[in-house]
Structures are given as structure tokens and as C-alpha cells.
């Protein structure tokens, strides 16, 4: 039965661990809860915030409306064909749990996305990605419920308007739908993605060769890398990568490369070059910086951290200083990946 609470602290529900309160809060564990919610007329006109794992969210103030915690569960194979397995997961399923389910069953496609925090429902919203793979590459469709009308709609790939850490749910349809389930098209015969980051090096350290390479090995390599670089939110509040990796013109990259020979770059099919934001931030002198309880992580400059009692505004102020510094030094604008409320 749906219960609506008042004056709920959101600190336990976000990985940044920042104190902010929701005026109203409800935990949605079934689609029936959505219909019950629609019948509560006193809540109809309130602003609403949909909360998954809270791993990509920075709260800078209390939320005066209704926070909807998405807890819809379940993982199942819905069909297969000669090449693919189609796996559907509830929007509230923990993302890494889904990845481990697929790896255990040898369903290929999600292994490079191991250990990303958050829930399945947030994955297409953010078009999450890591180590050369993005959700849109394995996405089949999703089912979402309109918060106001209760209408259930199926979104195909084109409907989602995927971009780099972008989708229609962050813009034109922001806050309008709750993603109830996502279906992924996974491969029976894997295509290995080992050329991004330190995957190849880590696989070699693990004693994995081309002959012994599996999706489980790639998953384990990614987990090793992430644990070596990224802080555990249970120990230090953070939202993972705070900034997107910027894309710049080839001419600008060549010019910067002449001045900074160590500058990494990843050519894109568009003709532009993706540059690691973490490298830019580190070179601008921010790695390991701390002001009060807000800081830049000592091992990965892309991660902003809350050492205990930083406010959301403290983190946001630091982010703005980092952005200004990178722009001044390199002429490159880095933009937040994290959603700021």
C-alpha cells in the first residue's frame, strides 16, 4: 500500500550524502502505486522529483514538492532470436545487479558498464556509459508511465533521442514520466570492447589472453579499475564522474596537443575529439583539493566529494570554480554530468 510521508530527509537516498528534505516522499514499489498516487488530489499540482539510486544527483536545497522513490523490481528474459537475448528489468533494479545477472548468464553487452551506481530506470535517462560502451548500443525499448495522466507508453530507441549522457527524459520530457521497465538487446556471441582506458592492461595483469577472454573477465577488469580510482559512496559522499568529457574540434585539439603533448584524445566518427575531463582538471591543479568538506578526489580528479558535512551549494561552488579554471587554462568548457536540483 502506498504511503506518503512528510518532512523526509533525502540524505540516505543520495550517494553524495548531502542533507536536504523532501516536503512529501513516497516509495513506489508497483505500478499500482502510481494509480493510487494519481487519486491523491492534494498532491496533483506539486512539483515532483523522481529518485532512483540518487547516484547522479546534487541537492542544493530542500525539495518543496513530492519525491517519488522508484523501487519497481524484477529481471526476466522476454524473448530471444538467432543472435540476441532480450532482457527486461524493472526501473528500480540496482544497475550492477542487472549487469551481474547478464554476466552470469553469458548475455553480452553490459559487461563494460559494471559497478556503475544507480538504477535501471536512470540508465536510459542519462544514457550511461563507460569504457567505450553506452546504453543506447544495447537498448531495445522502455515502458514508462506518465505521472499526471497514468498513460503507459512504449519508447523505442529513436523516441529517446539519445546523446552523450543525454536523452529526451532530461529535456523535453523531464519530470513527466516514470520509467517502469527497460528492455535490453544483448548478444549471444560477444563483441569484446577492450580498447578504452586501462582495460587491456588490467586484463593482462589478470593473466587473461585473447584465447581466454570472456565477458566475465572484462567485467572483473572494469570492477578492478573502478574500485582503484573511484571512492565508495558509503565511505566518501560522491556521485561518480561529476563532469562530462568534452568534445572539441580537431584543430583545437591539435593546437592544444602542441602545447600539452601528453593531452589524451579519442577521435569520434563526427570528426571531433573527446578529451578526458579528469585530465584537464588534474592539469589545472585541482586533484586532491579540499575546502572544508567539499573536495576533488585525490585519485580521480573527475570526482567531486563530500567529506562529511558539505552542503550542496558548497559542492556546486567548487564545481563552478573548477569549470572556470579549466576554461581559462585550456579554452575548453566542461559541463556537469550530475543533475543539480
Spell out the key features of this protein:
single chain; 341 residues; alpha+beta; Uridine Diphospho-n-acetylenolpyruvylglucosamine Reductase, domain 2; Uridine Diphospho-n-acetylenolpyruvylglucosamine Reductase, domain 3; Uridine Diphospho-n-acetylenolpyruvylglucosamine Reductase, domain 1; 3 domains; five-stranded antiparallel sheet; four-stranded mixed sheet; 8 helices; 27% strand
Question: Can you tell me about this structure?
Answer:
This protein is of the alpha+beta class and 341 residues long. It has 3 domains: 67 residues, Uridine Diphospho-n-acetylenolpyruvylglucosamine Reductase, domain 2 (2-Layer Sandwich), CATH 3.30.43.10; 113 residues, Uridine Diphospho-n-acetylenolpyruvylglucosamine Reductase, domain 3 (2-Layer Sandwich); 104 residues, Alpha-Beta Complex (Uridine Diphospho-n-acetylenolpyruvylglucosamine Reductase, domain 1), CATH 3.90.78.10. The protein is built from 8 helices and 20 strands. A 5-stranded antiparallel beta sheet has the order 6-7-12-10-11, covered by helices on one side. It has a 4-stranded mixed beta sheet with strand order 1-2-5-3. A 4-stranded antiparallel beta sheet has the order 13-19-18-17, covered by helices on one side. The longest helix is centred in the C-terminal third of the chain and has 19 residues. The radius of gyration is 21 Å and the shape is globular.
Amino acid at each position: 500500500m502506498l504511503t506518503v510521508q512528510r518532512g523526509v530527509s533525502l540524505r540516505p537516498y543520495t550517494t553524495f550524502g548531502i542533507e536536504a528534505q523532501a516536503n512529501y516522499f513516497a516509495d513506489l514499489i508497483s505500478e499500482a502505486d502510481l494509480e493510487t498516487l494519481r487519486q491523491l488530489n492534494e498532491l496533483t499540482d506539486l512539483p515532483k522529483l523522481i529518485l532512483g539510486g540518487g547516484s547522479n544527483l546534487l541537492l542544493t536545497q530542500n525539495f518543496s514538492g513530492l519525491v517519488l522513490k522508484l523501487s519497481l523490481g524484477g529481471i526476466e528474459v522476454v524473448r530471444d532470436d538467432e543472435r540476441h537475448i532480450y532482457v527486461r528489468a524493472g526501473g528500480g533494479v540496482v544497475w550492477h545487479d542487472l549487469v551481474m545477472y547478464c554476466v552470469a548468464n553469458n548475455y553480452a553487452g553490459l559487461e563494460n558498464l559494471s559497478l556503475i551506481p544507480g538504477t535501471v530506470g536512470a540508465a536510459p535517462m542519462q544514457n550511461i556509459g563507460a569504457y567505450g560502451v553506452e546504453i543506447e548500443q544495447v537498448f531495445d525499448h522502455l515502458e514508462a508511465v506518465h505521472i499526471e495522466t497514468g498513460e503507459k507508453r512504449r519508447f523505442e530507441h529513436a523516441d529517446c533521442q539519445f546523446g552523450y549522457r543525454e536523452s529526451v527524459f532530461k529535456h523535453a520530457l523531464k519530470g513527466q514520466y516514470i520509467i517502469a521497465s527497460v528492455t535490453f538487446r544483448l548478444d549471444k556471441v560477444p563483441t569484446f570492447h577492450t580498447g578504452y582506458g586501462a582495460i587491456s592492461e588490467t586484463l593482462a595483469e589478470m593473466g587473461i589472453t585473447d584465447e581466454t577472454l570472456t565477458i566475465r573477465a572484462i567485467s572483473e577488469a572494469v570492477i578492478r579499475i573502478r574500485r582503484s580510482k573511484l571512492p565508495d559512496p558509503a565511505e566518501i559522499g560522491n556521485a561518480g564522474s561529476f563532469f562530462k568529457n568534452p568534445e572539441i574540434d580537431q584543430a583545437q585539439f591539435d593546437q592544444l596537443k602542441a602545447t600539452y603533448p601528453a593531452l589524451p584524445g579519442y577521435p569520434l566518427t563526427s570528426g571531433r575529439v573527446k578529451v578526458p575531463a579528469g585530465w584537464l582538471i588534474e592539469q589545472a591543479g585541482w586533484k586532491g583539493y579540499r575546502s572544508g568538506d567539499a573536495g576533488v578526489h585525490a585519485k580521480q580528479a573527475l570526482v567531486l566529494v563530500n567529506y562529511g558535512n558539505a552542503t550542496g551549494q558548497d559542492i556546486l561552488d567548487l564545481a563552478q570554480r573548477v569549470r572556470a579554471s579549466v576554461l581559462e587554462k585550456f579554452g575548453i568548457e566542461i559541463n556537469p554530468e550530475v543533475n543539480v536540483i
